[in-house]
Structures are given as structure tokens and as C-alpha cells.
From TrEMBL:
Protein name: Alcohol dehydrogenase GroES domain protein
Boundaries of every Enoyl reductase (ER) domain copy: 7-344
PANTHER family assigned: SORBITOL DEHYDROGENASE
GO molecular function ontology, one term from the record: zinc ion binding
InterPro entries recorded: ADH-like_C, ADH-like_N, ADH_Zn_CS, ER, GroES-like_sf, NAD(P)-bd_dom_sf, SDH-like
Cofactor: Zn(2+)
Record-linked Gene3D superfamilies: Medium-chain alcohol dehydrogenases, catalytic domain (3.90.180.10), NAD(P)-binding Rossmann-like Domain (3.40.50.720)
Organism placement in taxonomy: Bacteria, Bacillati, Bacillota, Bacillota incertae sedis, Caldicellulosiruptorales
Coiled-coil segments: none
Family: Belongs to the zinc-containing alcohol dehydrogenase family.
Amino acid sequence: MKTMKAIVLEKPKVLKTEIRNRPVIMEDEVLVAVKCVGICGSDIHYYEHGKIGNYVVEKPLILGHEASGEVISIGRNVKKFNVGDKVVIEPGATCGKCEYCKSGRYNLCPDVKFLATPPVDGALCEYLAVKEDYLFKIPDNIEYDVATLVEPLSVGIHGAIRGNVKLGDKVLILGLGPVGLLTILAVKAFGASQIIAVDVQPLRLNAAKELGATHIINAKDSNYKQLILEATQNVGPDVTFETAGSKETSILAFEITKRGGRIVLIGLLPDNEVSVNINSIVDNEYNVYGVFRYANTYRKAIEVLSNNLDKVKKLITHRFKFDEAIQAFEFVRGNKDKCIKAVIVI
């Protein structure tokens, strides 16, 4: 049996390199040599706390779900890929049989097996066996590190679809982590004419400007709410995206959005409950949309990345080697003011 190296979370804040068996592909699978993996906020949360909500790391777990790589072998029934293809991996394998899968909302499949979500191992390893349905070719002009952004960009695209972003919309984005920043590109692709980006970190605000935000507002400014209103001629945004996952921004979304507007909730909060004025939702006829991962977005995400390569390359601020994984996680955890996106090159 051939072997490979993997980065394994043994318990909170303890990562180790393990030698594991290289996966053997089935007839409908592709063996991918993993080239690059992005470090997501969920990876950091598992690293710090060993759990996210109901998902608890009860045995050693390989982290990472934002992955790109090269096809090195294919099963006999694989039709769409050849050895040598550059690919990006959609990390959620669904049942294909439930009502959600059959209706196209497969992200809601109750039996999904999502990379790096306990007990399913992730992509921080040298090889992965992947069904061809969850692989997408990437053009030669997209490098492996940039290709890892397809996954977080897909969240933004799914949010734009859910929020019905359309030509001429004024959009507010609260929180400029990688998903919030990439949501700028998503809403631009759907025709938004005004994009107001809000955060507290100058590094992220500057990145938002480069990506195409028409207004950047630092939430440390005592009158930042008034600045948002002034940017929309005091009527509020047509669509508000909450991507920070904070109580304050979640409440603000329901206070500042234009009457009849749409509120898209992407960020996950530390607490399950936030006080919201239900009568205000009724009176303002808000449409409120939750966003859970994505569905049918990867091809669009690859297209958007291809059209914005010079801009998105700058989002990857730090690169680490495979044997520097521990340093990578510690750096990302403690340097949110210096790091937008870190990747591990394998």
C-alpha cells in the first residue's frame, strides 16, 4: 500500500504530520495530487476549540476544504477528466437522492459528507480520491493558490443569487474577511452599481477598494452608521450582506436596510440567538435569506476569478510550505490585522 503525508488535528491546538495510506480510487473517482489548500475560518475554529456547534472533533481529523490540485489517475468510468488536468475540488459530496439534491439545493442534503467537517477528513494531505462530479477544471492562467478562492467565492455567489442582486442595486457588505471581500466580486458580477464595504481593519478596507467597492467605511468611526446612510442618499441599501458573524452587524442589517430590501445572512455567530425587532421586519417587508455554503456555483466562480486575476492574487497575503502547517495556523490565528488569506502549498 502506497502512503502519503497528512496534517492531522489531534486535539485543540495540536497539529501533527502523520503517514497515512494513499487513497485507492473507485471506478467513478479521480486521484488528485493536492497542490494548495486555503486556511478557512472554520479550520481555525476547529484548531482552537475542537468543535463548531454540533460538529465535534472526536478523533484525529485532517483539516482543510479549500483545495486545488492535479489529476494523476482516473477510474475506468471517468469521462470528463484526464491525467494532468488542473482542478479545483467542491468539498461537499451529497447523496444525490433526497428531495434537496433532486431539486438542485444539494447544499441542504442531510447526508452530505463535507471535507474537514467531523468525522470526514479534509484536504491537508498529499492525495485525495474525489468523484468526478465534484471536480472542476481550471484554466491554465489560474494558479493553484488562486484556485483555492473558488470555494469562498462560491459562498458569495450563492448569497448574491439568494439575495436576488440585480443591475443597479446598492449593496452593503458588513465584514470583510475572505468571504466578505469575495462577495464584492460576486455582487459586481450580478450588476450591483454601488458597493459599501464595512470593517475595522485598514488592510481589509484597502483590499475592498481594490476589488471594486465604491465606498469603504471603518466601523471604528463613531458615526459609521450615518456614513452608510449618506452613501445611499439616506434610504439604506437595497441588499445587505452580513458576513462578519457578529451580533452588532446582524442587528444593524435589520436597522439600516432600505424598506422592501433584502437581508442576506452568511456569517455564523458565536451565540445562537440575537434580539431582532420582528415588527420592523413585517413593517419594512424585508426579505431575509440564510446562506448555507453553496450550490451550482463553481463554474461561475471560476469565470469570475478568471476575469479578476490581478485583483484576487493580492488577497493571498501569506503562503506556507506543507511542513510549516503549525506555524501557518498560529500565524493566521493571531494576525487578523496582517493576513487576509493564507494558503498551504503542498
